[in-house]
Amino acid sequence: MASYAPSFHSDASTECDPGSVDAKLPNDDTIIRRYKISNTAWRHHYNVKLGDDQQLYRVRVSEFRPKKPDLTFHAGMDDSGPIVAVAKFQHFSRSIHIGLGDPQAPSEMVWEDLTGQSKSHSKYRWETEVHTSSGPRRQSFLWKRTHHVGLEGHTWTRLSNRNYKLVDEQSGNILAMFMSNVASYKESGMLQIYVEYGQQFDLMVLATVLSLYEKARRRRQNSTTTGA
């Protein structure tokens, strides 16, 4: 089984977009939380666990039922847990609607848009309210594809097109990193977060990056099926 320790190259800056501020990769000492993400045999669910293997979320995948969210996050071990977040993919669009809360209580839902910024699916933007030492504030973020990280012992996983860094759009600081585990059928990857913005922020980070991961999986599956 592949190790979940990341392989960082902290002396190399990540690839830059024109006009963006970039930062060096964080190191292990700055990790606030680590999440391990795995998928079930038929990819009907994802499981999200902390680094100590405590399961936080069971994520139901719905691919062919357009009236249902594509991803539904349940707190706990199975689908009987309360719904805490959903993701709805927009067909023929690069946008994804992310909702925090339970759709059965629509007045309490908080909706945000994850919007594609490039035709190559390499950059997505989203906003949310974060809670900092100076109080809550609205903040914008970018998920960018990166090839500068991979899982320890499998450095070739850096070539995956499902490795992402989360960047603060204003400062350019790297706030989180997702490393896809292409070396395993069951283990999807690992998410590391480097800032303490609270549980809702972590859930938003998980919902956005897992949406990108699942969308990329479907694109790859469709291209394989059609022979494109």
General shape: globular
Query: What is the CATH topology?
Result: Porin
Terminal Cα span: 32 Å
Physical arrangement of strands within the biggest beta sheet: 2-3-4-5-6-7-8-9-10-12-13-14
Q: How many structural domains? A: 1
Extended strand count: 14
The name of the CATH superfamily reads LURP1-related
Classify the secondary structure makeup into a structural class.
Answer: mainly beta
Taking the sheet with the most strands, its summary is:
12 strands, antiparallel, barrel
CATH class: Mainly Beta
- The CATH architecture classification is Beta Barrel
Strand content: 35-45%
Give the integer mean of the pLDDT values: 85
- Enumerate how many helices there are, as a single number: 1
Radius of gyration: 17 Å
Assembly annotation: single chain
Low-confidence parts, pLDDT < 50 over ≥5 residues?
1-22
Helix content: 10-25%
The helix/strand series, from N terminus to C terminus, equals EEEEEEEEEEEEEEH
